[in-house]
Give the backbone structure.
Amino acid sequence: MPDSNRFRILACALTAACVAPAWASDFGLPALPFAATQEEAQDGDEAAVAEADETPDFWSGWTRSAELGISGSSGNTDEFDLRAIFQTERETDALRTLFRARYLYGEEDGSASENEWLLRGENDWLFPGERYFVFAFGVYEFDEFEDWDTRLQLFAGGGYDFLTDRSLLDGGNDRASLKGRLGAGVTREFGTDDDEFRPEALIGLDFLWEINEGQTFAAGTEVFPSLNDLGEIRAVSYANYDILLSEENNLTLRLGVEHEYDSNTDDADENDLKYFITILATF
């Protein structure tokens, strides 16, 4: 098997492994029976049924969304752009879990100008009644027009919920949340001269503001300072403004911008800015 295929298979396995512990607690393995009196057995059965009712099934409680945006022009310059995203997430008293797949493609005058996809899996381990949490996530990327072929990231650390469902307006009908993350991990870019795992720190912030029933604003950033070479840094930031189009059909118009900065590039630009308009369906 070619090395590139081995690396891709390994990357997918490691990404899944970051969130696999989130699954185990929800499946529940059968327990071995022990000798007991009829009364004890009956009490135990009732307790087991009550516990089963309170424990969420792994396959329930997920929120899924599909996001699609297509744009193009013809004339002096022929352009075509496609943005497709699938995301599923779930939150319980003990876990916040998210999976995300994104594909971007663009053409200019019949030639590809953008071709990239990204897979991300992340999990937060929560502590009921506390604001702090522990997190881990993995990201695997392919980008045809970067100076690397594929990139793998594995990170873990601790986080804190600075705001949780807090109102920022006088009316009190809005809800805002802000969480921060601090951790470390490794990044490896395949297909470059520096084809090694690089240790990096992580500083992250995510802000979500549900302004009213029909409007939501979200913004965040993840900064990855190198732990080997001081001064080298990567940063990924985003901002989205959502407008509910149809409550009955769960359709939302999303206006957004994404920015990625990488100080350690060869031929590619240090800044990569994307702005978009998409339709998002939640189901």
